[in-house]
Design a protein that fits this description.
about 475 residues; mainly beta; Methylamine Dehydrogenase, Chain H; 2 domains; 2 helices
Length: about 475
């Protein structure tokens, strides 16, 4: 009798247990799926994590910093127009500096790396890394005094490898988008810091983290975020509001991500995104992600770092280190087909920029070559002038503002020169950072120049003093 009762009850009990387990399993999965894009409650750590153990929503902390009322902007890598040229013509910049150098307005400690700043509406945005907490940190500071306004962080383990963070955020009046060292793309509200969404490119798109970690800076265009992911898709466009994928480019050759960033270009009535992938250069339709053209004559075996430079109608200037030299591509149209061909190529001893992207300014190309000297090239690739061997800059960054070029050397020596094809004309020099490796991309807004070395970020006043 007892055996018969047990035999009848056993299946029922197992069924109940199964239903309970199924409910728990479904509930757990649903919670993970939903939490990635839910708003974050302020000051409360969030627990859900992805397959790599990264907390998808992280931790938000508010501070007492206040945005500046200064109007200038440098909202992304290489500035508003992606050309490393300041468009702020309402500020007069000094052509000489006192013996002590420009006035340092503020200075902050940063985690090891080369991540530069973006500036918008009196706020400075930096992607940092906290080694003690083992976390990527998105920091919002006041342009006026460097005081922190808020920060958002999420845990991710990173080993020292020539620094850690090295990308510049993209910022609009609604969003800030960052790419972390291990290819986590995060979107927050640029004013409040509220969490919007995150993508793990390795997990979601089978991307491969580049050597020395991610160096690609994200691009926001209108309501889209553009990322060259590699892996399953060569490039993706996602909705800036939700993180949902809008289109994905095919990647039949399985090209992988480099340190180069994406640049938009208009040609023959079409808008496209140009990118130096691991196996060549591509032009991808901004409308639907289709590949409009590709060329394999340009690829760098170890690391492609500089971004393509738009150098006139249908002209794209490429440069790199590791014996790559440089190349000018020329686009052409034949019916509905666009193709790219090399217009000229320069050997590395003539010109090749190993780390930073050259600048196309008033029909000339300015850049620091493999020999560490500043060069000026004409559009045909002829070297117009080169700074002397005494004036070397290593792998430091450079920008142009008000016809002046600011160029940094490895150890924190900042040089001011004229951006002119008439010759190398140096105007001022000052030691502004201790180094080492003062390689972070520069940003300038309202006459405030933001610089960094491996461990420190500073803001200096480069405006002309009014008596």
């Amino acid at each position: 009798m007892k055996e018969s009762t047990i035999a009848k009850a056993l299946p029922v009990g197992l069924a109940i247990i199964g239903v309970v387990l199924l409910y728990v399993w479904l509930s757990a999965d649903a919670a993970i799926d939903l939490t990635e894009r839910l708003p974050i409650a302020h000051d409360i750590p969030q627990a859900p994590s992805d397959a790599n153990g990264v907390e998808m929503r992280g931790e938000f902390v508010r501070f007492d910093g206040v945005p500046s009322d200064l109007p200038g902007a440098w909202p992304r890598f290489r500035g508003a127009n992606l050309d490393a040229i300041s468009s702020d013509e309402n500020v007069t910049l000094a052509r000489t500096w006192p013996a002590s150098g420009p006035n340092v307005l503020w200075s902050i400690d940063v985690g090891e790396g080369y991540a530069g700043a973006a500036v918008l509406e009196g706020r400075v945005y930096v992607l940092d890394y906290d080694r003690e907490k083992q976390a990527d940190v998105i920091r919002c500071l006041s342009l006026a005094d460097g005081k922190e306004i808020w920060r958002y962080s999420y845990p991710v383990k990173i080993k020292r490898n020539h620094g850690m963070s090295r990308t510049v955020p993209a910022v609009t009046d609604k969003y800030i988008v960052t790419m972390g060292p291990k290819c986590h793309v995060t979107c927050l509200d640029s004013v409040t810091g509220q969490f919007n969404w995150v993508l793990d490119l390795v997990k979601d798109f089978k991307a491969k983290v580049p050597p020395w970690y991610a160096g690609q800076c994200p691009l926001i265009e209108g309501d889209k975020v553009i990322i060259a992911s590699g892996g399953d898709s060569l490039m993706i466009a996602v909705d800036a509001a939700t993180g949902e994928v809008i289109w994905q480019s095919p990647n039949p050759k399985r090209w992988v991500m480099t340190h180069s960033s994406v640049v938009p270009i208009e040609f023959a009535g079409r808008r496209m995104y140009v990118y130096c992938a691991s196996g060549g250069v591509v032009g991808i339709s901004a409308e639907d992600g289709s590949i409009l053209w590709e060329i394999t004559e340009w690829k760098i075996r170890i690391a492609n770092v500089p971004t393509p430079v738009v150098a006139g109608d249908g002209l794209i200037f490429l440069s790199g280190g590791y014996n790559a030299g440089s190349m000018m591509l020329k686009l052409s149209e034949d019916g509905d087909t666009i193709s790219a061909q090399p217009a000229f190529r320069l050997e590395p001893e003539v010109f090749g920029s190993p780390q930073h992207t050259p600048i196309f300014y008033d029909d000339y190309i300015y850049g620091v070559g493999a020999n560490g000297q500043l060069n000026c090239l004409d559009p045909d690739g002829k070297v117009v002038w080169t700074s002397t061997s005494v004036h070397k800059f290593g792998l430091g960054p450079y920008i142009i503002a008000n016809g002046l070029i600011y160029v940094m050397n490895d150890s924190g020596l900042l040089t001011l020169a004229e951006a002119t094809p008439n010759g190398y004309v140096q105007l001022a020099q000052a030691k502004v950072l201790e180094g080492p490796e003062s390689w972070g991309p520069m940003a300038v807004a309202s006459g405030r120049l933001i610089l960094r070395d491996m461990n420190r970020m500073i803001c200096i006043d480069v405006t002309e003093e009014v008596n």
